[in-house]
Amino acid sequence: MTKLDNRIDKQIDALVGAITDPIVVFTSPWMDTLPEWIKGEVKMQRLAQLMKEEEEVATDAEALAYMYPRALEAPLDSDWTEIYLYLGTQVMGDRMPDDIRKDSLSDYQMGLLMELKRWIYRQRVKARKERRRAEGRRQRVEAEAKAPKQLGLGL
What we know:
Mean pLDDT: 91
Order of helices and strands: HHHHH
Shape: elongated
Number of domains: 1
Distance between the termini: 42 Å
Helix content: 55-70%
Low-confidence stretches: none
Radius of gyration: 21 Å
Number of helices: 5
Largest sheet: none
């Protein structure tokens, strides 16, 4: 396999992942209440990120989706509240109410956000690889089931 083939395979994998990877959310009873518009925004931002060939981190919409059930679970501390409002502002744009808009973060808060986005991205890729392995196992089992059986006749 050439370097070009390898690069193309990675690009195809990333494209398929952008569309089919699960949305990583904080485990909570609230996780099933994630609004549909956020799910659509996650896919759109993933595709836009691929086109820009940006670094391998989760998008703002993915980080917002992760934090959504966490924010409903219990109050966030001041740094994470500001990060959540910042993400809401980035994702919602002009639809974000002026009284809760957050247009910038401190360096410390941006560091926390980037750490979260890298972690979410790693979880996404991990889920993709696990899904691929499970599919491979399923295909092998099906192939074995369809293969003709040979009787051991002791010859």
